[in-house]
Amino acid sequence: MTELLFRDDAYATEFEAEVLSARPGAVVLDRSLFYPEGGGQPGDTGLLRLADGRELKVTDARKGEAPGEVLHLLADAGELVPAGTRLQGRIDWERRHRLMRMHTCLHILSAVILAPVTGGAVGDGYGRLDFDLPESPEREEVQEKLNALIRRDAPVAFRWISEAELDARPELVKTMSVQPPRGRGEVRLVEVEGIDLQPCGGTHVQRIGEIGEVVISKVEKKGKQNRRVRLEFPGTAPTLNP
Ligand SMILES: [Zn+2]
Prior knowledge:
Elements lengths: L2 E2 H4 L5 E10 L2 E4 L1 E2 L13 E5 L4 E9 L6 E5 L11 E6 L1 H20 L4 E6 L3 E7 L6 H13 L4 E7 H6 L17 E7 L3 E4 L15 E7 L4 E7 L10
Parallel strand pairs: 1-4
Antiparallel strand pairs: 2-3, 2-8, 3-7, 5-6, 5-8, 6-7, 9-10, 10-15, 11-12, 12-13, 14-15
Helix pairs in contact: 2-3
């Protein structure tokens, strides 16, 4: 099991850890700040520094084979770091912060467009949500409402409920395609105060004012009953938002 340090502090950037197991090009650590890809949020990137000063680039983080493990994928696919090795880790904070801002922003968007969410993805500087909707929402109106909510600068809070409590309140799960991580008996709820409440294991900003201004770049028809809403931070290169 990897202790998931980003759960306690989404703003921490450096940590110390020990290698639990490894194969060429990948290590599992006993504790980590690297968020493993899941719930629509990409895995973190960064580096691992060995005692001799050598730095290994981490290109992605994924859930490992055993439950609760974080697998750190190394840029050098041949690199083998023996179990028991002590090291220091550092995530690419600027990228992670952009991912956090976009992830929290998508939660707020789900409170602006009141329809079931059928899919979604967080990208670096952009994101999208798919809604079960027969008509396209008006782009500028959605953008205005979303930015007005962000300007309220509401705090974001976390609390845990049992899986049984969640089953008794199915209305909390807005995302039909992305179910909250289960199996530990408890599920984490993310509350944007006064705006949104839903289960989510991702990383989020402390206050939504940190998100800053966002642009709804496109509203697309993706099937009879599906509307895809794409958003991005101003200044994101179009090539980065496929
Ligand atoms: Zn989420």
